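Protein data:
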Amino acid sequence: MIFQLPSIEEMMPFIIAIILLVADIFILKFGLAITKAEDKTNFKWVAGSFGIQLGLIFFISLPMLLSGLMGAYQDEGPHPAIIALTIIFSAFIDLNIVNVLHKIGMKRSLVIVLLILGPLSYAMYLINSNIGTFIF
């Protein structure tokens, strides 16, 4: 019983979330190329920048994650208003992080944030709403 692996159906949301996060790194690199960023655009800096963004967004959504771990979202997932507020606050923080790290200006940072916001939000939603159903 200890060595029994979870079924693929239980793992599928986490696999999709990982794929979305990896794709988001390439979207960030593409967004930096579109906006003609000149500072810190090699892949090492892009991956580091995305790691910082993901870490801060993960920290912002940590209360939802902890509630999911305790089993609060067994049937329906987090409340949509809480998700919307978390996404708005995370986008604001992300906008400033992209601007500070890559020094491209607020308008260009907004373009990049709009590109990466969708896949990142959906990946965080998948992780937060399914963490209570996954048994470690």
In short: The CA atoms of residues 1 and 75 lie 26 Å apart.
